[in-house]
Amino acid sequence: MDAVEVIAAKRDGRELTGAQIAWTVDAYTRGEVAEEQMSALCMAVVWRGMTRAEVGAWTEAMLRSGERLDFSDLARPTTDKHSTGGVGDKITLVLTPLVAACGAAVPQLSGRGLGHTGGTLDKLEAIPGWRGDLAPADMRRVLADVGAVVCAAGPGLAPADRRLYALRDVTGTVESIPLIAASIMSKKLAEGTASLVLDVKVGSGAFMKDPASARELAETMVAIGTDHGVRTRALLTAMDAPLGRAVGNAVEVAEAVEVLAGGGPSDVVELTLALAREMLEAAGIAADPAAALRGGAAMDVWRRMVAAQGGDPDAPLPAAAERRDILAPATGTLTRLDARAVGVAAWRLGAGRARKEDPVSPGAGVLLHAKPGEPVRAGRPLLTLLTDEPARFDRAAEALADAFEVDGPGGRLPLVLDRVG
Ligand code: URA
């Protein structure tokens, strides 16, 4: 095989064979295909796309580059959720113990935040003592004992994707539906879950800005999962405004705990229940997640899950040292609060990181005093910015300069736009 031939074939719009794809991904992982050759191929894929057979072969090649976990010996059926990433998305924190409380085993391998979208591991690490870097044997023990575990994907899962994602990140080739689908699904299939629900976000705070491209991504991922024998379905959900009323790390944990206690913002509750119903149905479990949330069973699993991973569920969460309010400019109805801008502000306040190795500030973030559709009063707090370093306030406020509108044309996306699979 010759990398230049493979690149030229894709450049000219031809379909690559399974053998060409398997060889290219493997040779890249071994260092035989050079970074510049792989970046040229990725750019050709961005322009030319891939067929269903090509995406399947690409996913399979990345999956084969590492280990594949197997939980088929567990007494409970396994099911998992993956979100394509959003702002204020703390759903995993509630959903994982909730679905476990209904009888499933939920092996949730999560990531850290990069850029304006937060990461579940960063959020949970705000809990004193909590650790997400579990060895495979510890992960299996927590999953078997508690039914739920949230931990970091080890370096052995789809290592080709790890390397390729870093390359795509610096070559303008992240925004390709086949490459995103193969990247996400290779990691999810390596995780060994029997069923999978994808939460594909749509809107300013998401990768996919419009429903048509989100649907295409969802259909591509559902097809890959189905072809690999994993019961896979997807919901397309709104990310035009942040989810809930807290964006950051500790503040999102606090909001998730409110939901587990039976309260919390209605959009977080509604989306958690919609995803829980999909996961339970995919796992073949007839249970009512609303009852498990109301009756406290999900909270019990949360407390056991946090404790099993070294955390103290009763410890006070870290709080930011400094706060500054952003005031509503007028009295009326808030018609727009841009998810991406709020995510960027939280990131600039210290809740997120610019480089993989940067630390995050657990207390930093943004609190929302109104959501689109709610009334606001001129001069009253609309948002509260939280940080440990007051020098960060101005840059965060700049990100929010055009982020909201009072009595504008409005028009929010419905929370659940569509379902695939
Ligand atoms: N998330 C991933 O894991 N991979 C992508 O390509 C994009 C988002």
TrEMBL record:
One of its GO terms (biological process) is pyrimidine nucleoside metabolic process. Residues 333-407 form the Pyrimidine nucleoside phosphorylase C-terminal domain. GO terms for cellular component: cytosol. Its EC number is 2.4.2.4. The keyword Hydrolase does not apply. InterPro entries: Glycosyl_Trfase_fam3, Glycosyl_Trfase_fam3_N_dom, Glycosyl_Trfase_fam3_N_dom_sf, Nuc_phospho_transferase, PYNP-like_C_sf, PYNP_C, Pyrmidine_PPas_bac/euk, Pyrmidine_PPase_CS. Gene3D superfamilies: Nucleoside phosphorylase/phosphoribosyltransferase catalytic domain (3.40.1030.10), Pyrimidine nucleoside phosphorylase-like, C-terminal domain (3.90.1170.30), Transferase, Pyrimidine Nucleoside Phosphorylase, Chain C (1.20.970.10). One of its GO terms (molecular function) is thymidine phosphorylase activity. Keywords: Glycosyltransferase, Transferase. The keyword Glycosyltransferase applies. SMART domains: PYNP_C. Pfam families: Glycos_trans_3N, Glycos_transf_3, PYNP_C. Belongs to the thymidine/pyrimidine-nucleoside phosphorylase family. PANTHER family: THYMIDINE PHOSPHORYLASE. NCBIfam families: PRK05820.1, Y_phosphoryl. Homodimer. This is Thymidine phosphorylase. The lineage of its organism: Bacteria, Bacillati, Actinomycetota, Actinomycetes, Streptosporangiales.
